[in-house]
Amino acid sequence: DAMVIQNPRYQVTQFGKPVTLSCSQTLNHNVMYWYQQKSSQAPKLLFHYYDKDFNNEADTPDNFQSRRPNTSFCFLDIRSPGLGDAAMYLCATSSRGQPGDEQFFGPGTRLTVL
Amino acid sequence: GQNIDQPTEMTATEGAIVQINCTYQTSGFNGLFWYQQHAGEAPTFLSYNVLDGLEEKGRFSSFLSRSKGYSYLLLKELQMKDSASYLCAALDSNYQLIWGAGTKLIIKP
Asked: What's the confidence (pLDDT) of residue A1?
């Protein structure tokens, strides 16, 4: 089945220790998104890629970086996680990023920072 | 600024009907999405409206009024598995999704 896969599902890291979250998709979609979602809050867009064209949201902290080496894979790097970065990180894809194109979400990675 | 408003929490009874409202203020508008999110899981797509009116899809219907900046999601014949958060998201002129915080729907037997 075509899908969006995120690994790991649960990640525990220590304060200040770099961590990388991964996302892969078998949908062959052009657009990939990374969201941060804290409990009972709206998903917050961190970045998105249209193909290899990287788009960084203005208020995304420099602590967050992203890479998309090919169509199928996208990574979120958190260089120095703080306690405030504990959240669910959601990867999503859409076929063209056009109006009406729904976003397909992966299961998310729940990050805990100790 | 851009803003989405929806109630924080609603309670309904199994078998009943519930309407979840959403108002939006965005820079331009290219449609409105509703997503369902069960606790600890990713959002899943329910509906997309770009024209005024009601779109029906099984037990779920979604309504849009562009002039009023208003949408609602109507859930009929509620089942226990419908207990979830329902997120409203509007697509702005830059094709960015502006998300609401979600309405937590609690279904009671």
From this structure: 67
- A87-113 tens-digit pLDDT: 999 999 999 877 788 899 999 999 999
Alpha-carbon gap: B14 to the closest alpha carbon of chain A (Å): 23
Contacts A21 to B, Cβ<8 Å: none
Beta carbons of A24 and A32 less than 8 angstroms apart? no
- Contact status, residue B12 vs residue B18, Cβ threshold 8 Å: yes
- Beta pairing, strands B103-108 & B9-13: parallel
DSSP one-letter string for A3-44: -EEEE-SEEEE-TT--EEEEEEESS--SEEEEEEE-TTS--E
User: pLDDT tens for residues A49-92?
Assistant: 998 888 888 889 999 999 999 999 999 999 999 999 999 999 99
CB–CB contact A41 B95 (8 Å): no
The residues, any chain, with a CB within 8 Å of residue A29's CB and separated by 6 or more, are A71, A93, A94, A95, A104
**Closest partner residue to B96 among A45, A98, A100, by Cβ?**
A45
Nearest to A18 by CA among A55, A60, A63: A63
Long-range pairs, B64-67, Cβ under 8 A, ≥24: B64/B32, B66/B29
